[in-house]
Amino acid sequence: MAEMLQVLDAATKAAKLPLGLTPDDCKTMYRAMLATRLFDQRGMNLQRQGRIGFCVPSMGQEASQIGTAFAAPKDDWIYPSYRTHSIAILRGVPFRTLIDQLYGNATDIVKGRQMPNHFSLRQWNLVSISSPIGTQISQAAGTARAIQIRGEQKAVWTYFGDGGTSEGEFHCGMNFAGVWKAPCIFVCENNQWAISVPVRQQTASESFAAKAIAYGMPGVKVDGNDVLAVYQAAKEARERAIAGGGPTLIETFTFRQGPHSSSDDPKRYQPPEMLETWKKKDPIARFQAFLEKKKLWTPEWEKALTDEITADLAKAVDAAEQTPAPAVDTMFDDVYATLPPHLVEQREAVRQQIRTSGAIQDTGGKFPL
Ligand SMILES: Cc1ncc(C[n+]2csc(CCOP(=O)(O)OP(=O)(O)O)c2C)c(N)n1
Ligand SMILES: [Mg+2]
């Protein structure tokens, strides 16, 4: 159980690409990892410039997320954590859709009702992100059970952190998925911190993967900065789930290279040498070195990709900033199929106020975190 799955080093020496991957597959994975990094850097800059209120970067965890999500066909359901927008990027969600959500503007899918970075992307089978830690875990187990009853050939994936395993939802979700042999894949991203709480305060187990034993499912610990190892574990877990073999727990051992969120400063609690050590194991740099060896990466391609992604991001930010806030009376939408009379009355009062005294008081869009 203590050993950790690694693939990149051996695959670099091998003649062929591993795991049935094509050159295009590898490039798609690399592109999504790079796009996620650039999205996060832009998000942090926008927040520091006071243009958005909040964001949650995933720097350092791109292999852990893209390696798993690449093994999930687009109609598999995903119950994400708040740090996994990389999966949306891989599934082809336009930057405009994601950035509108960060601004909470009139074209934001959730009409500015959620915290920034809490995406809700039903069209891409990505369930709304919940802020309370761990709630997605039992929801995913239940959805996997429903899929099993319906006989659909799909798996359900859920993402959570090392801290998430201390919640009751983790044990409840794992237990039921194990009992039902439901097609659920539990991805525990062990980035070694739950905000400022180190992993040693989270568990007395030798690993998070070891916890799978108690629930009667396989548990595998992988090098979370080795995108090929992560992909291998995820591919095997999905094959098992679809064949009726039940759930799997995957622990990706990785490191959050940035702050927990734009409201956090890891320098206040993290030994500085930790970041230095893990920067040397950066998942994008490691995959790039592999691709270069396979003649699938050149500096020219990197520059073209970076320029294209940066320009796309800039276009999306410009468009989002030119879009107004959601109209105030949209707060009455989406809850009732037919609005009850007292709310019709309140909506009319709001509209009347706008007609007579202009906009409702603007709070300046400040986010309190
Ligand atoms: C039930 C609950 N308790 C506390 C919080 C505050 N909180 C937000 S993120 C976080 C840390 C979670 O750490 P981990 O599960 O390791 O995920 P990571 O942020 O490292 O990806 C905490 C305690 C919360 N959102 N929900
Ligand atoms: Mg964590």
List the helices and strands and how they pair.
Blueprint: H1 8-13, H2 23-48, H3 62-69, E1 77-79, H4 85-90, H5 95-103, H6 135-150, E2 156-161, H7 168-180, E3 184-190, E4 193-194, E5 197-198, E6 219-223, H8 227-242, E7 248-253, H9 272-279, H10 283-293, H11 299-321, H12 341-357
Parallel strand pairs: 1-2, 2-3, 3-7, 6-7
Antiparallel strand pairs: 4-5
Bound molecules: thiamine diphosphate and magnesium ion.
Thiamine diphosphate is lined by residues 81, 83, 131-133, 160-164, 189, 191, 193-195, 256, 260.
Overall description:
By secondary structure, the protein is α/β, with parallel strands linked by helices. 43% of the residues lie in helices and 8% in strands. The protein has helices at residues 8-13, 23-48, 62-69, 85-90, 95-103, 135-150, 168-180, 227-242, 272-279, 283-293, 299-321, 341-357; strands spanning 77-79, 156-161, 184-190, 193-194, 197-198, 219-223, 248-253. The strands form 2 sheets. Strands 1-2-3-7-6 form a 5-stranded parallel beta sheet, with helices on both faces. The protein starts with 7 loop residues before the first helix and ends in a 12-residue tail after the last helix. The model has no long low-confidence stretch (mean pLDDT 95). The protein binds thiamine diphosphate and magnesium ion.
Q: Tell me about the largest β-sheet.
A: 5 strands, parallel
Number of domains: 2
Low-pLDDT stretches are none
Form type: globular
> What would you give as the CATH superfamily of the largest domain?
Thiamin diphosphate (ThDP)-binding fold, Pyr/PP domains
Strand order of the largest sheet: 1-2-3-7-6
The number of strands is: 7
CATH architecture of the largest domain: 3-Layer(aba) Sandwich
Total helix count?
12
End-to-end C-alpha gap: 40 Å
Class of the largest domain in CATH? Alpha Beta
Secondary-structure element order, N to C: HHHEHHHEHEEEEHEHHHH
Rg, rounded, reads: 22 Å
Amount of helix:
40-55%
